[in-house]
Backbone:
């Protein structure tokens, strides 16, 4: 049971052999219940629909992991903590310092583009050398054994070579860094969504990713190298932007201002876009990919920086590969894969073909849905039974052997012989049983890298393949690609989907050509449309994928049919099952927040129903021993703690009047640096700690168990006032789940305090906020005051008996940036007077929201897995 629960997370290995052995599956906390879940084996619930779930005796009895929500994953802090230390530093920076920070952002994007392209060049060159050597040896062996007999020896050599190469890549992933498995796109989507995936942007992950994709592609698996480039670019961006390596324990003392989740998120989005640009030579497509697939926050300046990184990545890769191909300066290789241009007049489409393209899009949606469904059940099987690293390596080797065997048998039994021709565009022509001057066309699909096979299907002249050859290849490659995705190897799904779609698209083109005998039925054109349909049916991308294919082909005229095909494939596929990335995110039980809240979530679920209750709160002055005990309590499963005034009466469901919120990581730093006040010496601490102390500990904050506090120190106190966020976001206890969801999604929140109605508030209108930003800048403020509002500039407001959302002391900049992403017209304020503060009754976290998911049975509540 523990092994299965560990497999729920991407980076699942625990150094403690006994960790997680008693990790029960808990039903979600009863809606609105003030009682915490106890350690009793019989967990009760007020909801009759939620049944008690006990640890099963065998893996066969575990619930499907898409109905679980893992407590292992934490949220990232995409909301800046504007405490007293933060304001002090912002005042010291000044206008000149802000310009330096902005220039640094552009310089980091330049480095991201260059380094991502260099990694792509290394991967491409090594794979090309590996493939040339492997297929040259295999061609010589097959030709020799064809003449002398003993072709079975060729099969053994082929299978052994594939299994050995794949074994190396799988060992790296299974035993060294499991999070490097797959393409990495689901993990990066989760990171940009605000979920902290362990080890996802570490240097070790990058090294395993690069080596793993080299071995998996060279080993002949049905994978591509383009998908992992997105993950590689994100890791490069996360590392470069911090100016240090926590893995190598090297701090270069640069870019310290960007050591926070908010800044790192933007650079990771730029790295993902640079990865797409390097893979496909599509800088605009890379920007749209980051926007469509992940970025939880977007603005105009971020768009320009991401586009800059993408263009630099494309140019650098083009420049380096031109030198490698002895054509220095001839920039003809914009990406790792080049689809080639469709400029022949027979490859142009006509208006009456658009309905045919829509039908192909529907076929792609059905094929993609079937692919995703089969892969879903395969992944469920792996989670249940193939969860040990050794078994994962053996499965990868088995797939490599089966792939080589099927490839060999398909080539052996194929009688599709084509004339070699004078230009001889086939790199490794296999004659086998064909006549002299002919080659086996089936070998051109299996006996090559996937990228070159795609290009061949796009541009080989009509008559290069017969329908039987292409049909058998479609069937076999569909099953192989479906089995391969999800193995413990670094792999991508882009190229396998394109190759599969190009094959059945060319088959449709061949059939249309045979039926009509017309020039418009060009098989290469339909191979391109089929490739787009298949990829869209699998990953369900529309906008970014349209632009990527347009840029990769260099033909804008195909924009309309490609867009229609992708939209049709998505609509048809969504009717049956979700996209492949979303499926794997749910199978990993990640608290991922979609763009829109669950249907009907506004009707009957309020914040009091989903909040964590009871919530652990701190007072502004707390005893050190009490703080350590609370942080060490395993039942405390949230990492943000409201700071309250001492409760003066009221019900047991109230925890005091809200003064701010402080994070667990901040308290850990305070305990580590002994930021204590001795008894009877209040006010003596001052500002000994600075933001640098918190940034030095970021992002690997030590666990509370590593902090030693003596008995004498336990009697000291801590003043949390300078370190807490004095203006936390809050919500009334009767607010709907729909409204809470939109606030979390638009503002990138990690915690949202739930309060009762005992308060007096003011209400600033949206125009008041922007009028205050338009006022003449205070003394010492540069002309860019509208872009960098002065940190002392407070909000104007008008009194109105509405609900509390902001503090009067909230920064004007924070208030303005709250209006923009959330489309808020009015923003309530609350007074800083203690008598007007409101009572805290709970806390909403990402996991509380992600527990609710819409299904065909209605709005369902997921189980929580302590793993």
Residues:
């Amino acid at each position: 049971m523990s092994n299965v629960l560990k497999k729920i997370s991407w980076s699942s290995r625990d150094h403690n052999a006994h960790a997680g052995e008693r990790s029960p599956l808990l039903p979600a906390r009863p809606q609105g219940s003030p009682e915490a879940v106890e350690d009793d084996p019989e967990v009760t619930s007020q909801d009759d629909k939620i049944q008690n779930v006990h640890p099963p005796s065998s893996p066969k009895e575990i619930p499907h992991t898409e109905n679980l929500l893992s407590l292992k994953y934490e949220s990232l802090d995409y909301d800046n903590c504007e405490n007293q230390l933060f304001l002090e530093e912002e005042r010291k920076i000044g206008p000149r310092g802000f310009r330096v920070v902005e220039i640094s952002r552009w310089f980091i994007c330049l480095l991201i583009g260059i380094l991502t392209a260099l990694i792509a060049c290394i991967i491409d060159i090594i794979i090309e050398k590996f493939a040339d050597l492997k297929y040259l040896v295999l061609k010589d062996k097959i030709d020799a054994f064809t003449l002398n007999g003993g072709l079975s020896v060729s099969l053994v050599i082929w299978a052994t070579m594939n299994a050995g190469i794949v074994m190396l890549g799988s060992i790296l992933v299974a035993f060294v860094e499991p999070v490097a498995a797959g393409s990495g796109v689901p993990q990066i989507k989760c990171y940009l969504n605000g979920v902290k995936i362990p080890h996802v942007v570490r240097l070790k992950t990058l090294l395993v990713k690069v080596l793993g994709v080299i071995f998996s592609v060279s080993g002949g698996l049905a994978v591509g190298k383009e998908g992992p480039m997105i993950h590689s670019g994100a890791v490069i961006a996360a590392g470069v932007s911090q100016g240090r390596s926590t893995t190598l324990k090297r701090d270069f003392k640069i870019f310290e201002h960007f050591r926070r989740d908010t800044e790192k998120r933007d650079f990771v989005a730029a790295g993902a876009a640079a990865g797409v640009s390097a893979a496909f030579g599509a800088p605009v497509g890379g920007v749209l990919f980051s926007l469509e697939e992940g970025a939880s926050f977007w603005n105009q300046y971020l768009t320009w920086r991401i586009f800059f990184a993408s263009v630099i990545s494309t140019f650098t890769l083009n420049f380096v590969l031109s030198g490698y191909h002895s054509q220095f300066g001839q920039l003809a290789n914009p990406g790792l894969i080049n689809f080639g241009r469709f400029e022949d007049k027979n490859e142009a489409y006509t208006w009456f073909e658009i309905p045919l393209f829509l039908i192909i899009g529907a076929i792609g949606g059905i094929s993609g849905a079937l692919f995703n469904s089969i892969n879903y059940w395969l992944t469920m099987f792996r989670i249940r039974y193939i969860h040990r690293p050794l078994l994962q390596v053996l499965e990868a080797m088995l797939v490599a052997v089966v792939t080589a065997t099927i490839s060999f048998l398909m080539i052996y039994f194929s009688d599709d012989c084509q004339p070699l021709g004078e230009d001889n565009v086939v790199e490794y022509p296999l004659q086998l049983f064909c006549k002299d001057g002919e080659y086996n066309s089936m070998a051109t699909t299996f006996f090559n890298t996937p990228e070159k096979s795609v290009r061949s299907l796009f541009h080989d002249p009509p008559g290069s393949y017969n329908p039987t050859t292409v049909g058998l290849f479609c069937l076999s490659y569909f099953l192989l690609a479906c089995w391969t995705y999800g193995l413990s190897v670094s792999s991508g799904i882009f190229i396998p989907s394109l190759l599969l779609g190009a094959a059945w698209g060319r088959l449709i083109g061949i059939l249309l050509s045979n039926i009509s005998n017309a020039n418009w039925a060009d098989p290469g054109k339909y191979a391109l449309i089929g490739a787009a349909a298949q990829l869209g049916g699998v990953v369900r991308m529309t906008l970014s994928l349209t632009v990527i294919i347009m840029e990769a082909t260099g033909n804008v005229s195909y924009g309309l049919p490609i867009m229609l095909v992708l939209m049709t494939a998505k609509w048809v596929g969504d009717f049956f099952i979700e996209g492949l990335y979303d499926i794997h995110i749910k199978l990993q039980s990640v608290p991922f927040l979609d763009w829109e809240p669950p249907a009907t979530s506004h009707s009957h679920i309020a914040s009091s129903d989903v909040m964590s209750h009871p919530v652990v709160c701190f007072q502004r002055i707390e005893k050190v021993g009490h703080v350590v005990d609370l942080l060490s309590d395993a039942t405390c499963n949230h990492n943000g703690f409201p700071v309250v005034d001492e409760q003066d009466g009221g019900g047991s469901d109230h925890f005091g009047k809200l003064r701010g919120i402080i994070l667990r990581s901040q308290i850990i730093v305070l305990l580590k640096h002994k930021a204590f006040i001795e008894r009877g010496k209040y006010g003596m601490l001052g500002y000994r700690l600075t933001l640098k102390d918190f940034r030095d500990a970021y992002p690997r904050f030590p666990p509370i168990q590593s902090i030693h506090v003596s008995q004498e120190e336990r009697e000291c106190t801590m003043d949390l006032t300078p370190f807490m966020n004095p203006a936390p976001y809050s919500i009334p206890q009767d607010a709907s789940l729909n409204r809470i969801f939109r606030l979390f999604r638009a503002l990138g929140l990690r915690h949202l305090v739930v309060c009762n109605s005992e308060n007096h508030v003011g209400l600033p209108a949206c125009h008041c906020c922007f009028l205050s930003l338009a006022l003449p800048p205070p003394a010492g403020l540069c002309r860019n005051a509208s872009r960098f509002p002065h940190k002392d500039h407070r909000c104007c407001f008008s009194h109105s008996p509405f609900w509390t959302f902001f503090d009067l002391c909230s920064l004007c900049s924070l208030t303005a940036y709250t209006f923009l992403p959330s489309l808020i017209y009015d923003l309530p304020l609350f007074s800083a007077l203690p008598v007007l503060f409101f009572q805290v009754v709970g806390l909403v976290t990402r996991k509380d929201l992600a527990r609710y998911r819409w299904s065909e049975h209605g709005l369902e509540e997921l189980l929580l897995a302590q793993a």
Summary: Residues 84-148 form the longest helix (65 residues). The chain is about 50% helix and 10% strand.
